[in-house]
Design a protein that fits this description.
The complex is a heterodimer. Chain A is 40% helix and 18% strand. Chain A is built from 14 helices and 14 strands. Chain A has helices spanning 3-18, 57-70, 91-104, 116-129, 141-144, 156-170, 187-200, 218-226, 238-250, 270-274, 296-308, 317-334, 344-352, 405-413, and strands at 41-47, 49-50, 53-54, 80-86, 109-111, 133-135, 149-151, 175-181, 204-210, 231-235, 258-261, 282-286, 379-386, 389-398. Chain A has a seven-stranded mixed sheet, with helices on both faces. A five-stranded parallel sheet of chain A has the order 4-1-5-6-7, sandwiched between helices. The longest helix of chain A has 18 residues, at 317-334. The radius of gyration of chain A is 21 Å and the shape is globular. In chain A, 57% of the residues are buried. Chain B has a domain at 47-250. A two-stranded antiparallel ribbon of chain B has the order 1-2. In chain B, a hairpin with a 2-residue loop joins strand 1 (156-159) and strand 2. In chain B, helix 2 (29-60) packs antiparallel against helix 9. The two termini of chain B are 19 Å apart. In chain B, 51% of the residues are buried. Classes of the chains: A alpha/beta, B mainly alpha.
C-alpha cells in the first residue's frame, strides 16, 4: 500500500470510526488542557523497522498518547520524554538501543516495545537493570516467559489457541496442522500448545515448519496436507499467510479444509489481498477488540491518533496495543507520588503492582504481578473475513489451555477471578 | 555442444536423479509427485532468473545482483497500477518496462564507468545498486499485505496429483523457450556473434570495431526484460514482497553457477533440480531445516566439479 492510499484508508477508517458521534478532543491522562512544564520523566521504546517488517506501529501510538498526555497536564505536571530507538532487527543494534535508553538516558521504564529481536536480546538486561518493559508487539517466548516484560498484545501462542479452540468447538476440527516459521521461540513454541489443546480434546495436530529464508511456501502447505489435517492454522506473519492461501487457492483447496489464523491476519489490507475466493472461508482470531466493537477506548484511540500521530501511522492491532500500554503506564504513574517518578526501582514496583485495569480494547483485566512470566491478555474475539472486512463470529471468550494454569493462579491471588 | 558439456549434463542429471530418489525413498508416489511438481514450479523461477543473469554476463562480464531488485520494482509498479484500476495488460507490461528502464539506466550510465574493472568490482557495484532500489521501493510501498494475481492463476491442469496453474506452465515453457531462443540468437545473428566476441575478449572486440556500447545496451535490455518478467511471475507465484523478490537473485545465481555462467541449458537444468531438491527436503525430518541451503550446496558441488579442470568461472581472467 502506498503512503497515498494509506492516508486515504486512514481517513476513511477514522471517519467511519467516528460516524454518528460528536467530534471531541481525546481524553489523555489528567486531561487538564494545559501543557505540562515540569521536569520530564524519561521513558524509552524500542521497535524494529527494516526489511522484512515495520513494527513501529506500537511506539507510534504510544508516542501519540504521551504527546496528548503532555498537552494535558502530563503526569502531575511532569511531561513524558519518550525516546524511541529502532533496532533494525539487528541483535547488536537491539542491545545498543537498550543500553542507550536504560544506561545512558536513565529511562525509568520502557513502553510500547515492538521488536521480537530486542525482546530476545534484552530480556535478561531488563532483569539485571531492574526496569520493566510494558511491551506491545510480542511474538516470541521471551516476551511472555521472563520477569520484566509484560505485553498488552497476546503474541502467537494465545491467539493460536483461540483460533484452534473456536475451530474445534464450532467448525468440527479434529486434526489441526499448524504452519509456522521454524524459529524455536516463535513457531514451534506457539504451535505446541494448540496441538496440546487438540490432543486434550481427543483430536490431533501437527506442525509444518517453514524456514524463514525459503521463498517457497508451497512445500509447507503440502506437508500440512500430507499430515491428514482437516484444519490449517496459519501461524505466520500476514504476508506469508497470504502466500500460503494463494498457494492453496492454486490447488483449489478452499473447501477441503478449514482455514484459521491468529491475529496477524486481522489487518484491514488482508481481505482485499486475498480476494473474493476466500470470502467467508478464513477465520481470524483478534487479540484486541475488532474495529467494529468501537467502545469508548477504541474511539479515544482513534482521536489520539488523529490529533497527535502522523497521518500515515498505522491504526492497527499493534497500534491499539501500544496505545493501551501507554494508557496503563500513565494511569499507574498518576497514582504515584510525583517525586518518585525518577526512581526506577519505585516505578518498577509500581508497574508490578498493576492489577485489574480494564479497557474495551481488551477482553479481560490487565495486570502485571510479581512473577517470572506475564501473559495478562489470554482472551479474545473470533472473526471471519466477509465482504472485504471482518465479521465477529464469537464475542470475548477465554482460551482454554493448561498453559494458563499458572496465570490463572496469579489472577486468583490478585482477586481478579 | 562439446563432449565435456554432454558429460557434465549427463553427470548432473544422473546425480540429481539419485538425490531425488534418495530423498523420496519410501514415500508414497502421490506425495512424492506433489513435492516434485511443486519443486519444478519454484525451480523454473530460479532458472528464469539464472538465464537473465547469464545472458548479461556472457555479453558484458557483469554478474548483475540488481536483477531481482529491478523485478521487485516492476512487480510493485504492476500492483500499484492494478490498485488504480489500470487495464491489467498495461499493469503487467509496466512491470517489464520498469525493470527494463532500471536495467538500461544502469547499463548505459553506470556500467560503462566500471567497464575495465575486475568482474568482482562490477558485481559488487550492482549489489549496491540493488540495495538502493530496494530502499526506494520499500520507502514508496511500506510493509503491508499485498498480492498480485493473473487471470492464468485460475486455470490449471493436474500433473502427478498436483494442480499446476497456467501461470506456472508459462514460467516453465518460457524458461525452455528462452534457452532455445537465446541460444539461436547468439549463434545465428550478427549481434549474437558480437556478444560472444565481447564475452571472449572485450579488448580485442573493441580493436576490431565491434560497437561495444550498442551490443552491451542490447544485452542489458534483454536482461531487464527477463528480470521484469521474472519479477512479475515471482510476485504472483511466490510472494509480492520487495525484499523476497530482490533476493531471489541469490538462488538464481546458484542456478547460473550450475551453468558455469555460460551454458543456458545447464542453468535451466540446475534451476529446476535445485527447486525439486529444496522441495523434497521437506520430506526429511532431519534435513528440512536446511532447505534454503540446497541451491547453494548444489552450486558449491558443481563448482568443485568444474574446478577439476582448473578453469575459474567468476572473478578471474577467464
Amino acid at each position: 500500500m502506498t503512503k497515498l492510499n494509506k492516508l486515504a484508508i486512514i481517513a476513511g477508517f477514522s471517519v467511519a470510526g467516528l460516524a454518528g458521534q460528536v467530534m471531541a478532543d481525546p481524553i489523555c491522562g489528567m486531561n487538564t488542557g494545559e501543557a505540562a512544564t515540569g521536569t520530564p520523566v524519561i521513558v524509552g521504546g524500542i521497535h524494529g523497522n527494516a526489511a522484512p517488517g515495520d513494527f513501529s506501529a506500537s511506539t507510534d501510538a504510544a508516542k501519540a498518547y504521551f504527546d496528548c498526555v503532555n498537552a494535558n497536564g502530563g503526569i502531575n505536571g511532569r511531561p513524558i520524554d519518550y525516546r524511541i530507538e529502532n533496532d533494525q532487527w539487528n541483535p547488536e543494534a537491539a542491545a545498543q538501543a537498550a543500553a542507550k535508553l536504560v544506561d545512558d538516558a536513565g529511562a525509568v521504564a520502557l513502553v510500547g516495545n515492538g521488536s521480537f529481536m530486542e525482546m530476545a536480546v534484552n530480556a535478561q538486561t531488563y532483569v539485571d537493570k531492574g526496569i520493566m518493559s510494558m511491551a506491545s508487539a510480542c511474538a516470541i517466548s521471551e516476551c511472555h516467559e521472563t520477569p520484566n516484560i509484560v505485553s498488552t498484545n497476546q503474541g502467537p501462542l494465545p491467539s493460536n489457541l483461540g483460533a484452534t479452540q473456536y475451530a474445534q468447538e464450532e467448525l468440527g476440527a479434529t486434526n489441526v496442522a499448524c504452519i509456522a516459521l521454524n524459529i524455536p521461540n516463535n513457531g514451534p513454541w506457539s504451535c505446541k500448545e494448540s496441538i496440546g489443546l487438540m490432543e486434550a480434546r481427543g483430536g490431533s495436530g501437527s506442525m509444518a515448519l517453514l524456514n524463514p529464508g525459503a521463498p517457497d511456501v508451497n512445500s509447507a502447505l503440502l506437508e500440512a496436507i500430507a499430515s491428514g489435517a482437516d484444519t490449517i492454522l496459519l501461524n505466520l506473519p500476514a504476508g506469508l499467510a497470504i502466500a500460503v492461501l494463494k498457494a492453496a487457492e492454486e490447488q483449489d483447496l478452499r473447501d477441503a479444509y478449514t482455514w484459521i489464523a491468529p491475529t496477524p491476519l486481522y489487518d484491514l489490507s488482508v481481505p482485499a489481498a486475498l480476494g473474493d475466493y476466500w470470502d467467508g472461508k478464513v477465520y481470524v482470531n483478534a487479540e484486541l477488540a475488532p474495529f467494529s466493537v468501537n467502545g469508548p477506548d477504541a474511539q479515544n484511540f482513534l482521536k489520539v491518533m488523529d490529533t497527535h500521530a502522523n497521518p500515515d501511522d498505522p491504526r492497527d492491532t499493534f497500534a491499539q496495543s501500544g496505545y493501551l500500554s501507554a494508557t496503563y503506564f500513565v494511569k499507574r504513574m498518576l497514582e504515584m507520588d510525583p517525586v518518585d517518578l525518577d526512581d526506577r526501582a519505585k516505578v518498577t514496583d509500581a508497574i508490578r503492582s498493576i492489577s485489574g485495569y480494564t479497557s474495551d480494547l481488551m477482553c479481560g483485566p490487565y495486570y502485571v504481578g510479581d512473577a517470572d512470566f506475564h501473559m495478562p491478555n489470554h482472551a479474545g474475539w473470533m472473526t471471519k473475513i466477509v465482504d472485504g472486512g471482518f465479521e465477529i463470529v464469537r464475542d470475548c471468550y477465554e482460551f482454554d489451555s493448561a498453559y494458563f494454569e499458572p496465570h490463572i493462579a496469579i489472577e486468583k491471588e490478585l482477586g481478579l477471578r | 555442444m562439446t563432449r565435456e558439456t554432454i558429460l557434465n549434463i549427463a553427470l548432473y542429471v544422473g546425480a540429481m536423479t539419485l538425490i531425488i530418489l534418495l530423498l523420496g525413498w519410501g514415500k508414497p508416489s502421490k506425495v512424492l509427485g506433489l513435492f516434485f511438481v511443486s519443486g519444478l514450479a519454484v525451480g523454473s523461477l530460479y532458472a528464469l532468473g539464472g538465464i537473465g543473469l547469464v545472458v548479461l554476463y556472457r555479453a558484458t562480464g557483469v554478474l548483475n545482483f540488481a536483477n531481482g531488485a529491478a523485478g521487485a520494482a516492476g512487480a510493485m509498479t504492476a500492483w500499484q497500477l492494478g490498485q488504480w484500476a489500470v487495464w491489467p495488460p498495461i499493469a503487467w507490461l509496466s512491470c517489464i518496462l520498469v525493470a527494463l528502464f532500471i536495467s538500461l539506466a544502469y547499463g548505459r550510465f553506470i556500467a560503462p564507468l566500471l567497464a575495465w574493472r575486475e568482474p568482482v568490482v562490477k558485481a559488487v557495484a550492482t549489489l549496491g545498486f540493488a540495495l538502493i532500489i530496494l530502499g526506494l521501493v520499500s520507502f514508496i510501498w511500506i510493509d503491508d499485505p499485498r498480492s498480485l494475481t493473473l487471470p492464468t492463476d485460475k486455470i490449471g491442469v493436474r500433473i502427478l496429483g498436483l494442480r499446476v496453474t497456467v501461470t506456472r506452465l508459462i514460467v516453465i515453457v518460457t524458461s525452455i523457450a528462452l534457452v532455445i531462443g537465446i541460444w539461436a540468437y547468439l549463434k545465428y545473428t550478427a549481434v549474437g556473434l558480437q556478444m560472444r566476441s565481447l564475452a571472449n575478449d572485450r579488448d580485442l572486440s573493441a580493436l576490431i570495431g565491434i560497437p561495444i556500447l550498442r551490443v552491451e545496451t542490447i544485452a542489458w535490455a534483454l536482461s531487464g526484460v527477463i528480470a521484469g518478467f521474472t519479477g512479475l511471475m515471482f510476485g504472483d507465484l511466490i510472494r509480492l514482497e520487495p525484499t523476497v523478490i530482490t533476493f531471489m537473485v541469490i538462488p538464481s545465481i546458484a542456478a547460473a553457477i550450475c551453468g558455469r555462467l555460460e551454458h543456458l541449458l545447464l542453468v535451466l537444468i540446475g534451476g529446476l533440480s535445485m527447486g525439486v531438491i529444496e522441495s523434497l527436503l521437506t520430506l526429511s525430518p532431519l534435513l528440512k531445516g536446511v532447505r534454503p541451503v540446497a541451491p547453494f550446496a548444489t552450486a558449491a558441488l558443481v563448482l568443485l566439479w568444474y574446478q577439476r579442470s582448473n578453469r575459474l568461472t567468476f572473478g578471474g581472467g577467464d
